[in-house]
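User: Can you help me understand a structure? I only have the sequence.
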Amino acid sequence: MSEGQDVAQKINERYRELSPASATAFAAAAGSLPGGDTRTMITYDPYPLYFNRGEGARVQDLDGRWYHDLVANYGALTHGHNHPELIRAVNDQMQRGTALGGPSPLQYQHADLLCARVPALERLRYCNSGTEATMWALRAARAFTGRDVIVKIDGGYHGTHDWGHVSAFIHGGKTLRQPLLDLPPANLAPGVPESVLMSVVTVPFNDANAVADVLARLPGRVAGLIVEPVLGVGGGIPARPGYLAELRQLTAQEGVVLIFDECATFRLGPWQVKHNIEPDLSTFSKIVGGGLPIGVFGGNAEIMAMFDPARPEPLYHASAFGGNSLSLAAGIAALETFGGAEISHLDALGDTLRKGLDAAARKAGVVGRAVGEGGLSYFHFGAVQPQNASDTAAARRGRDQLRALVHLHLLNEGFLTARHGLMCQHIVTDMSVVEEFVEVFASTLRLLRPYIGQYHPDLLEDVPLPAPGAVR
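Assistant: Let's start by predicting it. Here is the structure, written out as tokens:
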């Protein structure tokens, strides 16, 4: 066995040694849950860790091991686990009722807080998830404009509805030409009908010229353009300076509804407030529900007026748990305890993390760099900083096993990150945790140098290094 193979085997063996209860739970779950879980993104080999408790910025697995949580439930738990104000709000509301089947003052109280925070939110409505929020925003754009075509970003993730699962940076499915225009082929997730491509066009992130070309070639046919200010699962890539302002100008000129999907980037300010660009519609979820399910879509009052049941032929919107009292109570507590100081803290944590990861790679003699904004970060192997999803795909091609070993070893060392590379912090995360993580990340890369040298020699730089220690 080569030295590289030996390192990989020891990482896997240690993971299994540290998590026998999770292995048992995974086997039991497979009897009723395909794949042993109900969220594709959090499943990984040989089996995912199963957790039973969260406390502050840590989580505990079934074997009793504690981990520093650098996932924050993929950005949703910005306040950490068991935040006292959120717990108090949920407990109080549980005594009054969770979903009473009629309007509640909590709806406009939560809405008023959101509208005060986000000037572009003139009116809004509630649903249960980010998937629903983006679905309703797209439907609203179509209903308002009387047009059918949606422009989305290649690699942009907007949930699991059919319109969002075109080139959504997920594995599987089929790649087909885009029938409306001679653009690069689009990927359809399994189960998404080819007919969707007659109403969805994809263009690269950070390329305003591509958007201008589509709008010019489909005059009067484009209803809306949906974009994440920071490309999420497509690699954590921030919008280049000026890009979204250019999209704002282009869409306004053509009467196209500009939609910012800020389900993940509300924790950045939200992005549109921090950067002073107002879309026509916005979508939110995650943090604005205080750790409970929620979706929000809204914006321009004229567009949102289509949902008013008092108007002739309103846009029908129903949801048994949309705007439920429990999520709104938690969300109000979350919004009231998430202001400038908390955002600045997340910004500082993220800046320190990304600079530290870059330094860790240099220290380990491994080619790679961190990207992101605020409390959202990714690390990519390779010398090129990705500008769009195609760049991310190129950086990851052939390196799945390397990235998996980094992920497993970080778990072995007590740090929870996302399998696909996302790193998020909580407002209760201490700077010392980020600094410790950077050191562990550097030691992880040093440990994996023999593996990288065997399978990815292009990623190694010649630097003087101490002898790697044994896997603990």
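Now, to help you interpret it: The domain at 84-336 is CATH 3.40.640.10 (Aspartate Aminotransferase; domain 2). The mean pLDDT is 95. Let me know which part you'd like to focus on.
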